[in-house]
Amino acid sequence: MTALQDSRSGSPGPTATTKRHRGPEVRRKTTGTRLKYGLTVAVFLIPSALPLLFFTIIPMFSAFWISLNQWNLVGPMKWVGLGNYGKLIGDPGTQGAFLHTIYYIVGYLPLVYIGGLAIALALNSRIRGRSMMRGLYFLPVVTSWIVVALVWRWLLNPSTGIVNWLLGLIGVTGPGWWTDPAWSMPSIIVASAWKDLGFVMVILLAGLQAIPEDLYEAATVDGAGRWRRLFSITLPMLSPSTFFVIVLSLINGFQVFDQVYAMTGGGPNNSSQVVVQQIYDLTFRYGRAGEASALSWLLFLFILVITLIQVRGQKKWVHYA
Amino acid sequence: MNKKPLASLGLALTAILAMSGCGSAASSNVSSTEKVTIKYSNFISNGGNEKNLDTIVQAFEKANPNITVQVTTLPYKDYTTALQTDLAAGTQADTFDIEYANLRSYVANGAVAPLEGVDGSKYKQSLLQSYQSDGKQYALPSSFSDVILYYNKALFDAAKVAYPTASWTWADETAAAKKITDSAAGVYGDFQNVSFYEFYKALAQTGGKFLNDDGKSVAFNSPQGIKAAEWLAGKSGTTMPTPAQGAGTPDFDTKLFKDGKLGMLHSGIWVASSFADSPKSWDIAVEPGDTQKASAEFSNAIGVSANSKNKAAAQKWAEYMTSSDVMAQTRISAGWELPATSDDSVLKPYLAKDKPANRKAIFDALDNVALPPVIGDNQQKMVDIINNALGEVEAKRSSAADALKGAADQINALLK
Amino acid sequence: MRKQRPSITLNILVLVGALMMVFPFLWAFVTSISPGAGLSATPQLIPENPSLSAYAELLQRLPFAQIVLNSLILAILTTVFQLITSSLAAYVFSRMPFKGRNAVFAVYLATMMIPMQVLVVPLFVEMKSLGLIDTYLGVLLPGIASAFGVFLLRQAMNSVPQDLDQAATLDGAGHFRIFGLIVLPLVRPALATLTVFAFLNSWNSFLWPLIILRTPAMKTLPVALAGLQGQYTTQWDIVMAGSVVSVLPMLALYIFTQKYIIQGVAGTGLK
Question: Cβ atoms within 10 A of the Cβ of B85, count?
Fold first, then answer.
């Protein structure tokens, strides 16, 4: 877990005197100072730790308990041990749901990050009506999926949609999009990336504000061009925000649900069935809460491993001040 | 705040264990003077009939001054989610709405109390019986509706086709639909959802069965099943719009009918009130059959929770909400779904209303009812499997025979 | 060089993109002022008989002021709590090393990795034993801390140079003062961002309020709006009017905080 440690080391110690000499010095602190430091940490952490413990972590472990049982929510539970896990791992429906979810992330993440970055950069320049534009680009984030899904189903309509009409202009026969099992995931990916551009834009805009202007000025004096400045100043300075966007998009991406529910309902023929939709169906529609909980824990472990890999990898490319 | 994490974890687990026991069903009869409050959780009044339900509640409270009814109304599509959560925690209302397809699972898991001493003569018998199990009444039907054939007279006239009658068959329907369809003008002859709820009925219309008599395996994987699936899926793209043309978009079919661009529509009597004067001239008929007649009937019912502390009062309310005159009249005058009453005179004002002219068809359809197959906990899974299979046939990605065989294998596995 | 005005091409591109972004909202708005409109497969952008009747009916069918107030209070409280709890925790994860801190941070992140759909039932049972069913506290409590917020603010605090708080440490300032007087003002853009998202999440949350609130007068806006859709038919003009009404406060909040972000940076002397 050491890789989680920030790359910088100058964190202020509890007292001014220990500041410059970390390491062995820290261990020689008096019990009193350590206690005070520990208490300060506790005071800072408890307001968030307690709610998370009681309202997320404990229910998570309750869900784990449920995952060891067969349960339809209405009747009594029946102990099955790890049976639900075994059943799920061998189930083609579950494997399909994981594959579709991974497909979603692989398509969605590059689209939404590159698109969001482009918009953030454009709207960070002194463009006309910048404030209003920022508002307009944020609009899809706050518009409900019911509305967005209907519009995208229309845009991507195989026979009357604008997208296939545009493709036709350049001589391409457009695909069947959400009516075709091979194209249902791409349809969801495009609509989701479009809707979330504003989210990425907001995070990256906030990150861009923190880059000191004088860095650019110095680079310009040194004769760096626009692209050079982008790759040697903007992107490195933005890397903490980028890291946040990627970790978070992955965590949320694995839990993709609303857009699938609204756009295709998992179809046609389960071609866009994703893990969380499966969990919802198992819990509330199929009366198999035990299997649903087991599936949630499999998903949880999956996301956890992927996030830890990213956290370990961040040292190589994330630069903190 | 000094609670150890492990201790509270144990607490939560114990809570789960306790509720899974589902044992505490203490009930007591209320003495006539004690004031009680009972809860009623419903979806039937959602989306426009909340005030009508309120009227019935007030009449009940006036007649039973010792009982107060607390109503919670939820949207239909979220109702089951909320109810399941409540049943899991044991916090369900004393009385709650139940759909026919779910009753079996609730009875098997002891969630609903058997109702004794109900005056059964007040109810339409077929409906009352569908909520019985092992000779006990587990819920009371509050309303019913069925599916009929709507048709646009102007489009029939223009195509020079005679109007549908009760003796129509699938062949008549197909012939008329073909004549009415005019793709250039965006006019379609027919609309019927390609889904489970149409399939089990079409299957009955062509003389097939969904489940074998023992209920342990499916029987739809048959020549009749294939015929029914092809009948539904074959409409798509010929006389009926495809999903790409809008089928499946919410309210697409009713809008098409209202706009005067649809010759025939298979739908429930619940959409009738939204048509009024658009299209200009329309009527209804009993749905055509193939070798025999079969119509879909749907009903909602109210059950009393097995863990209610005021079962007697709860049952009183359930009976009032399903059989009282106030309820029946409120429903009729508001155009809410029809009460499941045995008293035909109550329905007279409904029959006398002018549009659609052939209201009698609504009741004639009940002479040959096909009830949906019910298999318990896996009900929704079965519905999804059939819907997927039909979708594949409709999109021509699979033959009806292959799709039904695949669906049959999956559902048989659920029945084991 | 950012002082330079961007090219016309960029201006036009941004404008075209913005139109694409606005389209669905515009369509929802047009549908909301077209009484009796269905959801046609092809959206119409010119209303046939424009009328505000859907908004009038919305007001008549729902205790609208009450419902908006419910949602507003819950969203404001959630946001305030999340700002406090997240910034405090983020400060530890950025500035106060201790043994096992990384593991604790990993546990924080882990709380985001399990879908709400599966937590609903256990959480509901827990709320029952706490006696919080059908209370605002029951809606509020699960949302007062957010790993998202902690992570967002930690990233922002890690981007703030350490020199400033080291100088303050030399002057004898304790952690509370460094936190409040130095670090917080410097991460104002991130705080504004969290404000927007915390508010948005609470404002739009559906499943949990649906399940835990029973009393009709306590309902929140998304739950009440979902109630407008019937079992069989839906009046889309009213549903769309509801969507429009629920988007506007969010948009206003966002535009407001955007201004604040820019001012905030101007005031830090970091420019």
Answer: 23
